[in-house]
Design brief:
Layout: H1 2-16, E1 19-25, E2 35-40, E3 46-47, E4 52-57, E5 73-74, E6 78-79, E7 84-88, H2 90-96, E8 102-103, E9 113-118, E10 124-130, E11 140-141, E12 144-145, E13 150-152, E14 162-165, E15 173-176
Parallel strand pairs: 7-8, 10-13
Antiparallel strand pairs: 1-2, 1-14, 2-7, 3-6, 4-5, 4-9, 9-10, 11-12, 14-15
Length: 213
């Protein structure tokens, strides 16, 4: 029985790993029209009950490692195989014409931050470090340095307005435009695939931005 329970737990963990942070808009001109989108790369639906998203201040200095944005945000519902799930404020939903799975005021850091997705057992599923390029800024969880799954930024000398995976679930990130509405943002829908000539971000840093503010 213990072996069976262990096998079930392992299977659940493997399925959880199929869910990724897919698109985020957090630093915009005017009103903060913010959203976070998840995507399920797996072949079966995944419950998000008990899951959370955390934001950790990643600027060097006394604020480093502090909790940002009123997180953790509690998730819920489920995400279909090959499906999208969103948490967003009303401004983003109105501007982009979609209905979020969770309607909530969110406050994404306007300087370097680390975003962490955890499952219902508090396992770390996905981490993304977004940076404005400040000296000493680093990915972390509660002040403990981590190696993030992906790193994005800066956008020139600024924090990127946001990012999206170029092709849902890919390990390549593209830049969301600062002006609103962002032409590349597709909350709750398929992300733009990668054109052959697009200069994009891989595991290291921003190769070429598509807009500077």
């Amino acid at each position: 029985m213990k072996i069976a329970i262990a096998l079930l737990a392992a299977a659940g963990s493997i399925a959880s790993a199929d869910v990724v942070i897919n698109e985020v808009l957090g630093s915009t001109s005017g009103a903060d029209n913010e959203f976070i989108e998840l995507y399920n790369t797996g072949g079966s639906a995944q419950s998000l009950a008990g899951w959370t998203i955390e934001l950790w201040d990643s600027d060097a200095g006394s604020q480093f490692g502090g909790v940002d944005g009123g997180t953790p945000y509690a998730l819920g519902g489920s995400i279909a195989a090959g499906g999208h799930w969103t948490i967003a404020n009303m401004g983003a939903q109105s501007l982009y014409g979609f209905t979020a799975d969770i309607n909530q005021e969110i406050s994404i850091e306007n300087s370097s931050y680390t975003m962490v997705l955890r499952d219902d057992l508090a396992n770390i599923i996905n981490t993304i470090f977004v940076t404005d390029g400040g000296a000493g800024d680093a990915a972390n969880i509660a002040g403990t340095f981590i190696t993030p799954d992906l790193t994005f930024g800066p956008d020139g000398t600024f924090l990127p307005a946001g990012f999206y995976r170029v092709g849902d679930g890919s390990n390549t990130l593209g830049l969301l435009e600062f002006g609103q509405p962002s032409a590349s943002a597709t909350p709750g829908a398929a992300n733009i695939p990668a054109p052959a000539a697009l200069a994009v971000l891989g595991m290291g840093g921003l190769v070429a931005g598509r807009r500077r503010r």
